[in-house]
Design goal:
It contains 15 helices and 13 strands. It has about 425 residues and is an alpha/beta fold. The relative contact order is 0.15.
């Protein structure tokens, strides 16, 4: 006997995360014995620092194993408020902060609390794939704005002005960017702020999960240092996953206007309740520690890896990589290779087929640029060792070298016909 389950329109509007799907496929091939290098997932290869783990153990020993307040423990929210005060010069009360099960839930809460059917959210592409899908699942309309390599993967004020309508409710900003590695300058942020001041209905969702992973000569300017008058229209989204190598602890947070944070807590109360107690204790310890040397050490390693990958990729004919200024990704332009032929004669008709070829030929797993809203690109994660990245980029170079351009293939065919 079978049961027909009628799925909602809501779930049919979204898809499984392409990052998760690519990672799962790479893992399945590795389990079959294939020699696979997976560069799909944005996850630090470092272990969580020992003092943070010890803080979690101490919390367990104190019996901190019960339900937590919906918006997060008082200790964690005070630690987040102190972080903003000391690092960013921003004042937030604990009531203006919500802790959630990762940054993704913060974003979901915010959009669930503010969107009605037909409301628009401006999402520059390339984007983190969850942004447009979280908009869709909450009945909103993502307005995708392509900003390619020629624009440094950054939204310009002219383009922003052109896409704002009366239905626009949010602008998503992500700096340093995933997947592009782009970092907005102070002048670029100021120009966007000038546009937003003319459109008071538009809120700003600032994804700064990679806040501490930057490779510019100086720390990037903060949005609210550039436009402090927009604080009451801005939601800051951050967490401990990238900065402190705590992806599995699932602790993120939002800081913003109290009315918005209260509404987000209502949504969270019905979706998941408060985040786990031990993870919050560990996150608070990470933020409160006087020793932040791990953050600097990790940033130095990510910067070195970005340089290594940029040099290696730009040495491969047909690939172009704008040097990342932050995060731990490389968003590689591969348009010159579309139309090339594999050794078996099959045409590489899209970046998805190029990604498939890298996996098939050399066991390198990447993600196609279309999953991030912009073609023709591919994304690779640089959050792994120098040795693995050197091996991976050498494999990519070999796979690309095995391809034939349409012109060379035609010339070879003509030569064969002439000889015949």
């Amino acid at each position: 006997m079978t049961t027909n389950i009628s799925l909602s329109r809501r779930v049919q509007r979204v898809r499984l995360s392409p990052n998760a799907a690519a990672s799962a496929r790479a893992s399945a091939l590795a389990a079959q014995g294939r020699d696979i290098i997976s560069l799909t997932t944005g996850e630090p290869d470092f272990d969580t620092p020992e003092p943070i783990k010890q803080a979690a153990i101490a919390a367990l020993a104190r019996g901190e194993t019960k339900y937590t307040p919906t918006a997060g423990t008082a200790q964690l929210r005070r630690a987040i408020a102190a972080k903003y005060r000391h690092e960013n010069g921003l004042e937030y009360t604990p009531q203006q902060i919500i802790a959630s099960n990762g940054g993704k839930q913060v974003i979901y809460n915010a959009l669930a609390a503010t969107l009605d059917a037909g409301d628009e959210v401006i999402v520059p592409a390339p984007y983190w794939p969850s942004f447009p899908d979280i908009v869709r699942v909450n009945d909103g309309t993502p307005v995708i704005v392509p900003v390619g390599q020629e624009q440094g993967f950054k939204l310009t004020p002219e383009v922003l002005e052109a896409v704002i309508t009366q239905r626009t409710r949010w602008l998503v900003l992500n700096t340093p960017g995933n997947p592009s590695g782009a970092v907005y300058s102070q002048a670029e942020l100021a120009a966007l702020a000038a546009v937003l001041r003319r459109h008071p209905q538009v809120l700003v969702l600032l994804d700064e999960l990679y806040e501490h992973i930057w490779f510019t000569p100086e720390a990037p300017a903060h949005w609210l240092a550039v436009a402090p008058d927009l604080k009451e229209r801005t939601l800051l989204v951050n967490g401990v996953s990238k900065t402190y190598a705590m992806t599995g602890w699932r602790i993120g947070w939002g800081a913003g206007p109290q009315e918005l944070i209260t509404a987000m807590a209502v949504i969270q109360s019905q979706a998941s309740s408060g985040p786990n107690s031990v993870g919050q204790a560990a996150a608070a310890a990470a933020l409160e520690s006087a020793d932040q040397s791990f953050v600097r050490t990790a940033r130095s390693a990510y910067a070195r890896r970005a340089r290594l990958v940029t040099e290696a990729i730009n040495a491969v004919p047909g690939l172009r990589l704008l040097p990342p200024e932050g995060s731990f990704f490389a968003f590689v332009h591969c348009g010159a290779l579309i139309g090339h032929l594999r050794p078996d004669g099959r045409v590489i008709a899209s970046e998805g087929e190029l990604v498939e070829w890298l996996l098939e030929a050399e066991g390198v797993a990447a993600v196609d640029g279309a999953s991030y809203g912009l073609s023709p690109y591919l994304r690779i994660s640089t959050a792994t060792s120098d040795e693995v990245l050197a091996d991976a980029t050498a494999r990519i170079a070999r796979a690309i070298a095995a391809l034939r351009s349409p012109a060379s293939a035609s010339a070879a065919l003509a030569e064969t016909e002439t000889a015949g």
